[in-house]
Specification:
Blueprint (H helix, E strand, L loop, with lengths): L1 H29 L4 H12 L2 H12 L3 H26 L2 E2 L2 H22 L10 E3 L1 H23 L2 H11 L9 H33 L3 H13 L1 H12 L3 H26 L2 E3 L4 H16 L8 E2 L1 H20 L1
Antiparallel strand pairs: 1-4, 2-3
Length: 324
Amino acid sequence: MDYLLLVIGLALLLAGANYLVDSAVAIAKRAKISNFIIGLTIVGIGTSAPELFVSIQSALTGHGDIAIGNVVGSNIANLLLILGVTAIICPFTIEKETHRADIPFGIFAAVILTMFVNDKWNPGIEENTLSRLDGAVLLIIFISYMVFTLFTKAKNPQEAKEDMDNDSQSTLEGKKPLLLWGIAAVSLAALLFGGQLFLDSAINLARAWGLSEAVISITIVAIGTSLPELITSVVAACKNNPQLALGNVLGSNVFNILMILGVTSSIKPINMAGLNAVDFIVMTGAAVGTFIVTYTFKKKMFDRAEGIIFVFCYIAYTAYLLMR
């Protein structure tokens, strides 16, 4: 039954996130909000909704390992698994701006989280906790990042407009406002109920398998909540548009750390017991690896050989988790 509930919960999470974004975009367009703002905020935050709802519910119910493990595991899966598979399907170039700004900022976010969470590295501290102060700092960095992105995009308004026009499409455009608000409300309810169902069944499975909540969150929960990024990236690669996959993954990782854990730990401090420094080192190492691939084999290219190495690293890390 828990397997079935896990699948149902995940389906509700993914469907709820999809329709919440669609209805929010349609409502924003009716309110004459620009595509640029819609793409930068609603679409970006909406695609991280599954991770956000699972992490908040985990923290509120005292399952800190799942709250943080979900984000750490998602980021590792995004970089090693999703980018690796994308590169195997369709090798792609890494643009100059991505190499100079986006990838380094992703590394910075991973390092900041690692420093904030591993309190035991400081003498006299016996618990690893992501405090409200840590959450506030993460949110300040996130807002600063959004403002910086806004000004960067504004320097090339035509390119920004094209990107945001593509991002800000909705299948619900033209529908009546009452219907749109109804869909948004039902979608939000699906996210809340699906997140709780997914969380409860994942905890039950962890106990049944004799695995820790941390391992379950880094593997099953993380991959489940990363399905939107996985599907988007594979489809983009198959359509010879892998740059979309790279931007999707890098943006998602920053949102996961700064926005999701910032919001979650601001609501309630997160105590972490089952995760250890290795998990954060792997997450940071995966971000650094994405930077290194611009210098190995073909320069400024993410080629098949590197994709295979990334996928192999993910399999090796998963095997390590199961043996831990």
